[in-house]
Amino acid sequence: MLERENRGSRLKDKVVIVTGGVWGIGRAFCLGMADEGAKIVASDIDLEAAMATIEEIEAMGGEAMALETDISILEDTLEMARRTVERFGRIDILVNNAAVISRVKLTENSFYELGPDDWDRVMAVNLKGPFLCTRAVFPYMKEQNEGRIINMASGAFFSEPDIFVNYMASKGGVIGLTRSLSTALAQYNINVNCIAPGRNFGENLDNKAAWEEYERRTYFQSSLEGGEYPEDLVGAAIFLASSDSDFITGQTIVVDDGMAS
Predict the structure, then answer these.
(1) What secondary structure, in 3-state letters, does the chain show?
(2) Which fold has domain 15-255?
(3) For residue 189, what pLDDT is reported?
(4) Between 20 and 30 A from 148 (CA), which of 48, 80, 191, 252?
């Protein structure tokens, strides 16, 4: 894991919603953006875990709020946006991070073994969720005439697309959603971009055994020393959330240690 310096105030007083902000990448985003002066809303289906993230931010001297949200439910996402504005007055940045991975055992027949319920659950969270969350915050960003949407895809989409059929389809959809929304929302000064992480250590995956099998079957020579950790994605997220990326929209930044090269 690369050491990250404290950067200071690039997001000072910005209000950031991070979905899935309780572990792994989401938690790292919450802490990293708070370290840049942002006010954080950690939104997750697990409220107790979200509160733990908030306690860490408050211990740093930051401002934060935890919300229990199922991003696959329209009413939950609308409530998330409403309560954020009620507490902090605005929404500057939405990080669509919450996701689930396939629960189907990884075998050569995984496509055939995949049931409609598993397909629907992954799509509901990974693709419908970012759409609903963006839809929920849009009226507030439109009124402000500015905003940032950061979606999370997967570097594996570019390098191992045959693994976890529903997961890969959902993450490909996120890239398409990013490109389409960037055009639709440009007139409101809303930037929409995407980060595609590589194989990230520290993630609380739904199917650990399947992921270990994926690791065993995948040949990959790392371009950099060490593996990728959640904290290694924070710099890209802060860049896309800050004024440094004012002229960037509709793009997918692959942060995967050269895996897709």
Answers:
(1) CCCCCCCCCCCCCCEEEEECCCCHHHHHHHHHHHHCCCEEEEEECCHHHHHHHHHHHHHCCCCEEEEECCCCCHHHHHHHHHHHHHHHCCCCEEEECCCCCCCCCCCCCHHHHCCHHHHHHHHHHHHHHHHHHHHHHHHHHHHHCCEEEEEECCCHHHHCCCCCHHHHHHHHHHHHHHHHHHHHHHHHCEEEEEEEECCECCCCCCCHHHHHHHHHHCCCCCCCCCCECHHHHHHHHHHHHCHHHCCCCCCEEEECCCCCC
(2) Rossmann fold (3.40.50)
(3) 98
(4) 48
